[in-house]
Design a protein that fits this description.
There is one protein chain. By secondary structure, the chain is α+β, with helices and mostly antiparallel strands. Helix content is 38%, strand content 21%. It has helices at residues 3-14, 26-29, 49-62, 116-124, 142-147, 155-158, 161-164, 193-197, 231-245, 257-266, 291-307, 320-340, 355-369, 398-419, 435-441, 444-457; strands at 19-20, 40-44, 66-69, 87-91, 98-102, 107-111, 128-129, 165-172, 177-180, 205-213, 215-216, 220-228, 249-256, 279-287, 313-316, 347-349, 374-380, 385-391. The strands form four sheets. It has a seven-stranded antiparallel sheet with strand order 15-12-14-13-17-18-16, with helices on both faces. A five-stranded antiparallel sheet has the order 5-6-10-8-9, sandwiched between helices. Strands 1-2-4-3 form a four-stranded mixed sheet. A hairpin with a 4-residue loop joins strand 17 and strand 18 (385-391). The longest helix is centred in the last third of the chain and has 22 residues, at 398-419. Bound molecules: flavin-adenine dinucleotide (FAD). Flavin-adenine dinucleotide binds next to strand 3, helix 5 and strand 10. Flavin-adenine dinucleotide (FAD) binds at residues 32, 67-75, 78-79, 92, 112, 134-136, 140-141, 143-145, 147-148, 150-152, 201-202, 206-207, 334, 427-428, 464.
C-alpha cells in the first residue's frame, strides 16, 4: 500500500477528522524534554479498541510502523516518531474513559488514554486510592504508565505500575484484540502475558485498557521535611522510619542541595520550609487513624533522629495545604531542571546499601574528569532510585557541552552503576535514549530472550521499531 492508500485505510478506520496530516503536529512529534524531534506520516486518534485494531491492521497491511503515544511525557524518546516521515503516531488520548469501578473487589477499569490524575480522582470520589502518583500525573496516561512500568512517589509502599495492574486489554501487532481485563488477584493459568506488555514501551502491543488495584484511602496523610548532613544519614533515617512507621511510611524522597537550589532559582514563589542543607528528605506517612496520630508518630521519629545526630533540622506539616506545598517543591525539581537548560539525566537504581558508596565514588570521578559540572541529585531513596543528573558548568553553552561530553559522562556513570550492582534504568525505561547502552550492558542471554519475544509477538517489527531493542 502506498502512502496515500494507507491514509485512506486509516481514515476508513477512525474517520477522516481523526487522521491528522496537517503542518503543525509538533505536540506529537517533539518529546517532553525537547530532545527528540520526529516527523509523522500522520497522527491517528481512534476512539475505541475496535478502531485501534483496525488502525493496526491497516498499518500491518502496508508495513507502516506505529508509534503508540499517550500523554507524551516519557523521558527516553520512545513516544515520538523518527524523522523519516514514514511512521504513524497512534494517539490514545480520545480513549479516556473510566470504564468501571468495582468497590467490593477494590479495582477500577479504565481506557488506556485515561489521564492518571482523572483515574486517581475517580477512585477518590468513591473513597478509594489508586496508588500511583508522579509529577506528570496531570498529563500522562494509564497506558503510558503501564507501557513504561512507571514508578513515582509511592512505590515504597505500593509498588510500581506493574504491581497496580491486574488485567489488560491489548491490541496485538496482528490487529487482534486480547481481552485480559481480569480483576483476579490469583490466576495461575500459564504465562503472565500481562507482565510482558507492562514495561514493553509500546514494542509488543497496544494497551487499550487496564484493570487496576485500588486501596482504601488513608484517613490522614502527614508530611515532614528533614535536613541531613550526609547521604549516609538519609539511609540511616530510612531504616529508622521503616522500623518506626512500618507500612504507614508511604514516601521517602531525597533532594540534594543543588536540586533545591534550582527550585529556589526558578520557582522563588514556592516557599521551602527548611533552609538549604546538604541533603533534605521528604517523608510521607499514610495513617489509618488520624492526622494527630500521624503527626505524633512523625514527631517521635524525628526526635529520635535528632538525638542520634542523623538530622539537623525538621519541619512537620500541620495541614494538608502544608503537605501539598512540600510535595510541590519536590515535584518542581524536574521542571526547574528543564528551565535551567539541557542536562545529562541518569535515572538509576542501586541497592540502598550501596547508594552512599556509589554517590561518593561517582561524584569524585565526575568532578575529576569534568571539572565544574554541577551534580543535581534527587530521587526516590526509599526505592533505591536516584535521578543522578549532571548539569554543565556555569557559564558554558549547555548544548555544546552535552555534544562534547555526554557520551563520556554516561560511560563513567553507567560503569559505576554496573560496579555497584545497579540498573541503568530504574523507572523511565530505555526508549531511544538508552537503547545502545542496554545492548552493551544487559546480559546477552537476557537480550536474546527479549529479541525472541519481540519476533514472536511482532514479526513485522511494526510497533515502535528502533526503541528498546
Ligand atoms: C515532570 C515529569 C515527571 C515524571 N516523573 C516520573 C516518575 O516519578 N516516575 C516515572 O516512572 N516516570 C516519570 N516520568 C516519566 C514517565 O515515563 C511518564 O510520565 C509516564 O509514565 C508516561 O506516560 P505517557 O502517557 O505520557 O506515555 P508516553 O510518553 O506517551 O509514552 C511512553 C512510552 O509508552 C508507550 N505507550 C504509551 N501509551 C501506550 C499504550 N497505550 N500502549 C502501548 N504503549 C504505550 C509509548 O510508545 C512510549 O514508548 C515523568 C515525566 C515528567 C515529564
Amino acid at each position: 500500500m502506498a502512502g496515500a492508500a494507507v491514509l485512506d485505510a486509516l481514515r476508513a478506520a477512525v474517520g477522516a477528522a481523526h487522521v491528522r496530516v496537517d503542518d503543525d503536529l509538533s505536540a506529537y512529534e517533539v518529546d517532553w524534554r525537547k530532545r527528540y524531534r520526529g516527523r509523522a506520516l500522520a497522527v491517528v486518534r481512534p476512539a475505541s479498541t475496535a478502531e485501534v485494531a483496525a488502525v493496526v491492521r491497516a498499518c500491518g497491511a502496508s508495513g507502516t510502523p506505529i508509534v503508540t503515544q499517550g500523554g507524551n511525557t516519557g523521558l527516553v524518546g520512545a513516544s515520538i516518531p523518527d524523522p523519516s516521515g514514514t511512521q504513524v503516531v497512534l494517539s490514545l488520548t480520545r480513549m479516556n474513559r473510566v470504564r468501571a469501578i468495582d468497590a467490593a473487589n477494590l479495582t477500577m477499569t479504565t481506557d488506556a488514554g485515561c489521564v492518571l490524575q482523572a483515574a486517581q480522582e475517580a477512585a477518590e470520589s468513591q473513597g478509594l486510592l489508586l496508588a500511583l502518583s508522579l509529577a506528570a500525573e496531570g498529563s500522562c496516561t494509564i497506558g503510558g504508565n503501564l507501557a513504561t512500568n512507571a514508578g513515582g512517589t509511592q512505590v515504597l509502599r505500593y509498588g510500581n505500575a506493574r504491581e497496580q495492574c491486574l488485567g489488560l486489554e491489548v491490541v496485538t501487532a496482528a490487529g487482534e484484540i486480547w481481552d485480559g481485563l481480569s480483576g483476579l488477584r490469583k490466576d495461575n493459568t500459564g504465562y503472565a502475558l500481562r507482565d510482558l506488555y507492562i514495561g514493553s514501551e509500546g514494542t509488543l502491543g497496544v494497551i487499550t485498557a487496564a484493570t487496576l488495584k485500588l486501596h482504601p484511602q488513608p484517613v490522614a496523610r502527614c508530611t515532614a521535611l528533614a535536613a541531613l548532613p550526609t547521604l549516609d544519614a538519609a539511609v540511616a533515617l530510612l531504616q529508622l522510619a521503616q522500623a518506626g512507621l512500618g507500612a504507614a511510611l508511604t514516601g521517602f524522597e531525597v533532594m540534594g542541595r543543588q536540586a533545591l537550589a534550582l527550585v529556589r532559582a526558578h520557582f522563588p514563589q514556592r516557599a521551602q520550609a527548611l533552609p538549604p542543607a546538604e541533603w533534605t528528605v521528604l517523608l510521607e506517612q499514610s495513617d489509618s487513624e488520624s492526622a494527630a496520630h500521624a503527626q505524633a508518630a512523625f514527631e517521635t521519629l524525628l526526635e529520635v533522629a535528632l538525638t542520634r545526630g542523623l538530622i539537623s533540622d525538621a519541619a512537620v506539616a500541620s495541614s494538608a495545604a502544608q503537605s501539598k506545598a512540600m510535595w510541590h517543591v519536590r515535584e518542581s525539581i524536574p521542571l526547574a531542571q528543564a528551565a535551567q537548560g539541557p542536562n545529562i539525566k541518569h535515572d538509576i537504581s542501586l541497592p540502598i546499601s550501596a547508594i552512599t558508596r556509589f554517590v561518593t565514588a561517582t561524584d569524585a570521578a565526575l568532578l575529576r574528569s569534568f571539572p565544574g559540572v554541577r551534580l543535581v541529585n534527587f530521587g526516590h531513596l526509599g526505592d533505591g532510585n536516584l535521578h543522578y543528573n549532571v548539569q554543565p558548568p556555569d557559564g558554558v553553552e549547555a548544548a555544546a557541552y552535552l555534544q562534547a561530553h555526554e557520551t563520556a559522562v554516561n560511560k563513567l556513570v553507567y560503569d559505576s552503576v554496573d560496579a555497584h550492582a545497579g540498573s541503568i534504568s530504574a523507572e523511565h525505561g530505555i526508549g531511544a535514549l538508552k537503547r545502545d547502552e542496554l545492548a552493551q550492558r544487559k546480559s546477552p542471554v537476557a537480550l536474546a530472550q527479549m529479541r525472541a519475544i519481540k519476533r514472536a509477538l511482532d514479526p513485522q517489527n511494526l510497533l515502535n521499531p528502533g526503541r528498546l531493542l
